[in-house]
């Protein structure tokens, strides 16, 4: 069941990040991948500043922030800022 929640949070985080970054979503599978990578990146960034998620909503927020940062970096690298 944990894997299903992880994938659902990844999907939702990728979707939200795509909306926040003005339509830079990548479809269903792409959003899951962006959300999962964003969750790892967000967790790393939050640990650096001393924050830690403690709930499902915190996990979603962490993953979404990480996914937004990831999409921002992808935009810079691809030149589509």
Automatic annotation (TrEMBL):
It is a multi-pass membrane protein. One of its GO terms (cellular component) is plasma membrane. It comes from the Bacteria. The chain crosses the membrane at residues 28-49, 56-77. InterPro entries: Transgly_assoc. Keywords: Cell membrane, Membrane, Transmembrane, Transmembrane helix. The keyword Ligase does not apply. Its main location: membrane. It is found in: Cell membrane. The keyword Oxidoreductase does not apply. Belongs to the UPF0410 family. This is GlsB/YeaQ/YmgE family stress response membrane protein.
């Amino acid at each position: 069941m944990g894997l299903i929640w992880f994938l659902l949070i990844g999907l939702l985080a990728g979707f939200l990040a795509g909306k926040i970054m003005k339509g830079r979503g990548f479809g269903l599978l792409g959003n899951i991948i962006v959300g999962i990578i964003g969750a790892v990146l967000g967790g790393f960034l939050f640990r650096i500043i001393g924050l830690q998620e403690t709930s499902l909503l915190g996990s979603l927020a962490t993953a979404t922030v990480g996914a937004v940062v990831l999409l921002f970096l992808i935009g810079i690298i691809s030149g589509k800022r």
